[in-house]
């Protein structure tokens, strides 16, 4: 007698669990031989099983798993709505582009409007400003939080300022209380890039809930992963509808895939100069994109979401462990500090080499690289010194001295949950050993 499809499915998923245990078994750490990366995917049999389970449905576009993830993720992050997209960068593009919608009437952003941001950030926090014909206004950051220097906000304000778009750097919240108050006082939109900061809080309130719209990334380096993926978060129903349209080709219709005429007026409306009754499913109210995820990615996300609390706790523990081990090196290094009033969900551990240290940042990162310890610079340093941004329209407040300091002196190492205590100790030993005796290292 042939087994049923359901029985075969159960057998497949059982074998996937067994395969995962064997194929991805943890290997012993060998100092100097085993890589110590800055980030990476952390997964188990439940994640792989979720991926295979969803693939057996062969629902290749966003579907039931995506819908479920959006509901659960919105609840976890304290929002009314979460919209899945294919990356954190796409989330930033959708979030800011949504603020240009005609549906916002006289509050919409238009070309030439100004958006306050920082140059010590990741390119795709800045890019949507430029891609929408808006003018970035750059303010400096503070060391050692590496977040916006809020004392420069008033100087950045002009009659054309309409929004603020900045990230919580490496999981350390910026002073979002001050920034949100400034935005409210001057009737500005606030876009919070939380791609590195899922689970962080400020004053006990989750980041991403202070502004109008927020973004998250699910790239393997981030707090949970779908491989590729991201989300747009908001509690405003109008912004949710606009963002959904921007993500889904710009169409006006909000029916889910596979469903038609949920509004009951599919063939009974008038839009623009289209003929009366033109199919609502093919009516476009925005110049949009197709930035959706697959249901298989969302299935992984649901499995990962159940581990989020533990992942965040592990990041905090690794950060505290490394901080404790690097005490006493103040002569050479500036260690990171949390923004007052915040509880970071650390993405990485930023370290500044003092300008008068007897070695350079490059000396130290080369040393770590030789010993198989991964490092990264703090994003693009000063983005205004990058080739891509040499000729962009902009306003700059002050001399961005701390941004340049970050570009020359700062790097970061990992604290992600895949790093075991012995790896953190090895990192600390290699850093401390080099600082105290660089010639012998």
Quickly give the CATH architecture of the largest domain.
3-Layer(aba) Sandwich
Find the structural class using helix and strand composition.
alpha/beta
Number of helices: 13
Shape: flat
Order of helical and strand elements: HHHEHEHEEEHEHEEEEEHHHEEEHEEHEH
Q: Can you tell me the number of structural domains?
A: 2
In this structure, how is the largest beta sheet organized? 8 strands, mixed
Q: On the 0-100 scale, what is the average pLDDT? A: 95
The quaternary organization reads as single chain
Largest sheet strand order: 1-11-10-7-6-2-3-16
Radius of gyration equals 24 Å
% residues in beta strands: 5-15%
CATH topology of the largest domain: Aspartate Aminotransferase, domain 2
Got a strand count? Answer: 17
CATH superfamily of the largest domain: Type I PLP-dependent aspartate aminotransferase-like (Major domain)
CATH class of the largest domain: Alpha Beta
Low-confidence stretches: none
* Amino-to-carboxy terminus distance: 68 Å
Helix content: 25-40%
